[in-house]
Amino acid sequence: MTEGEFMAIVYPEELETLRLQLSKEDFDVFSNQIVYWGSDNPSLPYGADIWEESGPLNLSALNRTERERYGIQNAIIGGNGYRIMEYLKWHVREGEPVSFHRNVPEGIRNITCDLNWIDTESSLKIMIFGPDGMMGPYYDSSDGTEDGRIFLRIFRNGGLTGGDWYAVTEAEHTAYGKPQAFRLLFY
Q1: What confidence tens digit (pLDDT) does each residue in 19-58 have?
Q2: Which of 60, 83, 123, 161 is deepest in the core (most CB within 10 A)?
Q3: How many Cα neighbours within 13 Å face the side chain of 71?
Q4: How many angstroms from the chain centroid is the CA of residue 102?
């Protein structure tokens, strides 16, 4: 719904006053703006991860209780305060995939995915899901070295498709049947 459509329903007299006071060009610009409701805000060009009605939320300014309310208590926040750079989900169990989300803005040329774990007796894999398909699964040897790390850079000359991207980590086997500690950077 545009501002003009909204005002025609809710404030028709004020809309007419604006039409008379503004130039046709300014009135058209104003009345064709999209009205955003609640959390239905557009993404910032640099990709803020959480929005409030007043705009992007500075995540680094949140206290522990507020971070828990947004479900980001295990997130590492980027230097600008608006982007989630990494999630700290410390353990994965066999048969229990762990999913990480990243909203990628249009025009980004690459994404880096860096999965690390300590015990190389464990076998982890990762799958990447983007708006235009799935990649993987990738295993420890997929990056050319078996070292308890899977390092991938997903690149496309024309830029990656913007939207929701997911990295799903799964343990095929964990050493001694215990949960495997890991770290995932997905940026």
Answers
A1: 888 889 888 888 888 765 544 444 443 455 676 777 777 7
A2: 83
A3: 4
A4: 3
